[in-house]
Amino acid sequence: LRSAAPPGLGMEVMAPPIINALNGSSVKLSCTFNSCYKVENKQFSLNWTYQECSNCSEELFLQFRTKIMNKQLDRFGNRVEFTGNPAKYDVSFTLKNVQLEDEGTYNCYVLNPPDRHRGHGKISLKVLTK
């Protein structure tokens, strides 16, 4: 029997485990969270990372530190657009003109102080040719 988490330990991140996208299309990688606390831009932090394979290192490509920062990785160029709204507990982004090489794991890490726990969502992107 699980007891309810004590107050302040309750961050939960929701992300679909697998997303299929058509080669050349745009796809929204959805990541939302809930927290007992209002999002304060000065404290809130978000990292989106990409992993080509399960033991590959994670590449940071999108970050929120007081404002959204797009790292413009060569891999994605200008195809990443932040479409979330942290104040509404949404940190999703859209990947435009999806390429076969975009396949892999996308990790969404959210920290919303005073929550002490960093939330983590994980999406596996599969790219379909038809």
What is this structure, in a nutshell?
This protein has no helices and 11 strands. The protein is mainly beta.
Report what the structure shows.
This protein has a single domain, classed as Immunoglobulins (Immunoglobulin-like), CATH 2.60.40.10. Mean pLDDT is 92; it is low at 1-5. A six-stranded mixed beta sheet has the order 2-11-10-5-6-7, with no helix packed on it. The protein contains no helices and eleven strands. The protein is an all-beta fold and 130 residues long. The protein is globular, with a radius of gyration of 15 Å. It is 0% helix and 43% strand. The termini are far apart. Strand 5 and strand 6 (59-65) form a beta hairpin. It is found in: Membrane. This is SCN2B protein. Its main location: membrane. It is a single-pass type I membrane protein. Residues 7-124 form the Ig-like domain.
Q: Whole-Å distance between the termini?
A: 46 Å
Tally the beta strands.
11
Strand order of the largest sheet: 2-11-10-5-6-7
> What is the count of structural domains?
1
Say what the CATH topology is.
Immunoglobulin-like
As a whole number of angstroms, the C-alpha radius of gyration is 15 Å
Into which percentage range does the β-strand content fall? 35-45%
* CATH architecture verdict: Sandwich
**Secondary structural class:** mainly beta
Order of helices and strands: EEEEEEEEEEE
**Largest sheet geometry:** 6 strands, mixed
CATH superfamily: Immunoglobulins
Number of helices: 0
Helix content: under 10%
Shape: globular
What is the arithmetic mean of pLDDT? 92
